[in-house]
Amino acid sequence: MHQYKTGYERAEVLAILSKHETITYDAIQEMPYLDMVIKEALRKYPTLPFLDRECTKTYTIPNTNVVIQKGIAVYISLTALQHDENYFPDPMVFNPERFSAENKSTIVPYTYMPFGEGYKNCLGNVL
Q1: What's the distance, CA 11 to chain centroid?
Q2: Is 122 assigned a ligand-binding role in the annotation?
Q3: What is the pTM of this model?
Q4: Residue 5: predicted pLDDT
Q5: Cβ neighbours of residue 20 closer than 8 Å, sequence gap 6 or more
Q6: How far from 93 is each of 1, 81, 108, CA to CA, in Å?
């Protein structure tokens, strides 16, 4: 078991279920700590280890001489990205608080992408 505030998410679920009697979309919206736990689990253990895309136009990576030609496959390692200490301090520590309302704004855009990004992202993202 990970060393974090175990039991918070269970207590939260039980409290909401006593109010709603069943799990509904609205009930889940009232479980912020459970949401944080799920997001941290997806950060630490991504369901897809990488995203793949095709370069749609020739692109030079800024401040480099590296050119990606149109039609080339580009692979983004989510495992490496979401375990990078530059973006997630102590990346091997399971810490749901990374996704708290207070801390969410510190996450650099496009460094947490368990469902992908853009128009090809996973439909499950909204659940």
Answers
A1: 23
A2: yes
A3: 0.82
A4: 61
A5: 26, 27
A6: 12, 15, 18
